[in-house]
Amino acid sequence: MTEEIVFKTEADMPYLPMSLGTTLVNKTGSWRYIRPLYVDKTPPCNHDCPAGEDIVGYLALIEEGKYKEGWELIMQENPFPGVCGRVCPHPCESECNRRELGGAIAIHTLERFLADHTASQRPSVQASKRYDAKIAIIGSGPAGLACAYHLALRGYPVTVFEALPVVGGMMRVGIPEYRLPREVLEREIADIEALGVEIETNMRLGDNFKLSDLEDYQAIFIAVGLQKSRKLNVPGEDAEGVIPGLELLKRVNLGEEVQVGPSVAVIGGGNTAVDAARSALRLGSDVREPRSNEVTILYRRSREEMPAIAGEIEEALAEGVKIRYLSAPIELLTENGWVMGLKCVKMELGEPDESGRRRPMPIAGSEYALKADTVIPAIGQEADTSFLETGEQRLIEVRRGHIFIDAAGATTRPGIFAGGDVATPFGTVAHAVGSGKRAALAIDKYLRGEELSGFPPIDEAVHAVPKDMDPAIVRFDDLNPAYFEEIERTEQPQRPIEERVSGFEYFGWAQYGEVNLGFNEEEAQAEAERCFNCGTCNLCDTCLIFCPDVAIARLVAPPYPVPLARLNGAGYEVNYDYCKGCGVCAEECPRYAISIEKEIKWKK
Amino acid sequence: MRLALKALGEKTILVIPACCWSIIAGAFPYSSVKVPLMHTAFETGGSAAAGIKAALEVQGDTETTVLTWAGDGGTFDIGLQALSGAVERNEDFIYACYDNEAYMNTGIQRSSATPWGAWTTTTPVQHPKETPKKDIVAIMAAHRIPYTATATVAYPEDLVRKFQKAKGIRGAKFIHILSPCPPGWKMEPAYSIRISRLAVESKVFPLYEVENGEKWTITVWPKREVPVREYVKLQGRFSHLTEEDIEFIQENVDREWERLVARAVQ
Amino acid sequence: MEKVIMGNHAVSYGAKLARAQVIAAYPITPQTQIVEMLSEFWAEGLLDAKFIKVESEHSAMAACIGASSAGARAFTATSGHGLALMHEMLHWAAGARLPIVMANVNRAMGPGWSIWTEQTDSLAQRDTGWLQFYCESNQEVLDSVIQAFKIAEQVLLPTMLVLDAFVLSHTQEPVDIPDQELVDRYLPPYDARYKLDPGDPHAFGAMVAPPHYMELRYKIQKAMEEAVEVARQADGEFREIFGRSYGLVEKYRLEDAEVVLVASATITSTARVVVDELREEGYKVGLLKVRMFRPFPTKDVREALAGARKVAVIDRNISFGHGGIFAEEIKSALYNGSHRPPIFGFIIGLGGRDVTPASIRGIAEYTFEHDTPEMEIIWREVKNS
Predict the structure, then answer these.
(1) Same domain, yes or no, for C238 and C313?
(2) DSSP string, C122-161
(3) d(CA C384, nearest CA chain A) in Å
(4) Does B223 touch chain A (CB under 8 A)?
(5) Is ipTM over 0.90?
(6) A462 assigned to some structural domain
(7) Which of A141, A541, A583, B64 could lock onto B190 through a cystine, CB 3.0 to 4.6 A?
(8) From 3.30.1360.200, 3.40.50.300, 3.40.50.970, 1.10.760.10, which CATH number describes the B2-263 domain?
(9) Which of A13, A21, A546 is the closest to B30 by Cβ?
(10) Measured between beta carbons, which residues in chain A are less than 8 angstroms from residue B34?
(11) pLDDT digits (tens, 9 = 90+) for B111-163
């Protein structure tokens, strides 16, 4: 009973001072000049995921044991959780607020866990409608397939043209199997094909067909990647025994026999260099004499600047790869047309260059020689846009070696979109997935005659299923550390080094066991529980417990809706009749899921 | 209060001597609680509860818990005699003192619960309180009552557990709850919980319990330890303190903590 | 069953027979035997009550308030300084409308310390909202305890019965101790209209703001007014069952009395003897005993004094700066009436000094000798040089 009690005469009153109703009649909310609001904010991991995954969302689902739902939450944005959970450099982890208390969450391992744990299941999502407009996608790498996936989900018939006899682009031929087992990739590609996506292999644009052959298609997405390896531009580069890193990886991945000499030098500091070095190590090993060759990476800057994934560098070193920092080749030494060694120069770091990294400068007189019978340059790739050289295809503008696109992924020619490495500078699977998704969303709009506006800048993620959250990014200082203890990060187990590098005996030619072994369920739970759920209400009840006005009510009870992590304000209700605006709920919220707003009524 | 009543259940009768809760509980003809409540005079928290408990028992009700909910003034000062009498007789009730360390209802005058160095309207900054806070828990424990405990709302599970434990014990139970008062402590209301937590983390207000006056147990070992400065700096009532003053408080807190640890069962 | 017992024990028997359920008391001379005997009753299992041996009278009253609020019949006893210490809680008990019964053994206030009788302690509590009865004999004490519960529980106000220190409290008299069965018939178990009950939760005693406070005070006064007739009826019912009654006032030989002595408590007994003597000597003198002081039986007093030419009020108490309290009360009771005889206010026997038949005779003679009082306060037996 919350009505006011009115006594007209003394006879209406009790004879003693006793209560006949509740103080709820006193609407103390009128004292308030600030009000709390449940507003989910953007966790740094979500913000930094190039593929636009709702990471906190699926970590919460892992905690709840809802693995299929977690996997499907990723699949809303990225059809390659198994791939990305293995090969992504996980920028999500670099800003993870857990860093402060025991190390960043092992997000990539958890993503992989979801993919592996649901390996026997297939996604339940299907296109709800069918369009007639056909779309051609050139390149079956992560960008092309992600674009195909999102378009197929929206009901478009899609055909993917792939130059190689195998599907997957760099995921298939650029990443060694010990990092990405083939069946993982094949499973995720199969899921895309299951949506009706057609893939035609051995169809190289420019050789087997031209853009003008694709007139039946209402939109085209070009995602051909970077096909040309950059040259060292030093004498002797064309000698026998020199094999570009990507070429080496591709041949190994296509099952060709590749011989490397006892002394291998790899030039470069990126993932391709590290992958090539570790592959070379494996190629030169057998079980009787592991690591019988010597593999050395030459990198012209220091470890700090090395762009390869840190964990991969550590694994390479552990396996026996040597790295010479601040060294660059100035000549390949040859004999009878075969490479015999390198002439190198030592470097020092000068002022930062346009990439922000310190520019390496040769130290005069520091030249030295290094023995090498195989030299693997891996200093990057370039786009091969020669297919654009004829006719009206010139209308597609190329800038600095990349096809130029706008925020929607559209090229300068209407109906033609581009993405992945041929159009963007990022070079990761996750970025390519994001890029393909961006184009898919844009193509959908284009085909429905909508304006291609509203896309975020190219270096930010797009979302196929936008999650309702404030774009403000939650930083450690926004959290309430009182609720979190320091807990060490869980690392996934790894295959023993001896077993990794002498894979032949175990797996057959060039079949190496996967280095990282992933989490079991217990490890995944433990790691997911470390998540702070930054900016994300997870019904912890802290606000409810501490509200001194008893003005907060919980709206949901178990069993919780899925995903729990995206209640975003639907979990609790603030009764503003009684909330006095003390701010305790927002101050105490462990994860900054409550905002404080000034009451408008005080504004003049 | 909500946590305490949650722990004790509907079969509870509240006794509220003059304190802030005399207002919070609601003015005639309203009540803010769903259990029966008796307002009573300032110094009668112990005695009025004893009368209620006796009346229940003589009428055959042995289930209902009688809970006195009193401020520090009503407990440490004016009500100490009746409290001492009631607990010495081992009356079967729970006496909870929510301690905001001064007479807040009357406008922030010092009480014997006011800590050393604190500003109040009767201990102005030119002449802040020169004596330490009365150790009410030791006084209660010295009565050899079955259960004495400290609690703060910043550690709700600990608080609820202590009320539940108290409910299950026959005889006199005393629970001392530190309760920040934003105007009286000159602090942001939003910091109420944070400051309560800092009180524990800085060991200004350790969480422990004493059984039968003999068995001392620290119930919450702070997850992180912070200097007293962290606690003091959020409160305007301490803003006049010099570094030496804070150091002095720190030394006292350290000494008290060592004493507590020494007599606590490990 | 007749027993020779002291006044204090008469109180104890009364509380036992009234089936007091919660007793909270603190010892003070000259009240201690009340508490001691109740403890014995309780220890022997003759008393189905909870006995709270509190650490002060203030707590005694607070505990009674708690007990009564929770629906129990509550009883306590005190005296002098103990009553003064209770003062705050006396207001509380009345404001909370709790039918607590208390025996107060009249004791003079210090300093200097005095343990002897004087009425100032209880009369000083006249504005607290308690009913007050002044008893003359140990039998009346016992009977009044039982009547007090009967009245209090009907009007929902606390009730105090008062007896003189030593003169009654420690003086043995034959007392008829009624059968429990008869007492139970007279006084049914207490059934509180509102109490602290988890099944029907209410808050009692909260802040009352000006829009409501006055009405609650008005209701207390209305209950006091009602108490006059309730007390008369209770006394009448008592007579029916036990064959004894005391009235709100007692009119003794008032027929054709020119001078009426007004007395209370044990002085009444002495005065009764003196009136008899004076009547034999031919003086037209009578006695009015005021038993119920709060509510003040104004109607009964006016009626009793309707034929008096002069009224002599004997006060063993004093309101400093004004006078004897009974005298002032009698004056104010008559002022708005049609008959306003001169009222002589005598102060006598403070601090337990004996009030003898000669003292009373002196007062009566003084009154006969003077048409009007020479002064507002007539001090008797003060040592003069």
Answers:
(1) no
(2) HHTTGGGS-EEEE--SHHHHHHHHHHHHHHHHHHT--EEE
(3) 52
(4) yes
(5) yes
(6) no
(7) A583
(8) 3.40.50.970
(9) A21
(10) 22
(11) 999 999 999 999 999 999 999 999 999 999 999 999 999 999 999 999 999 99
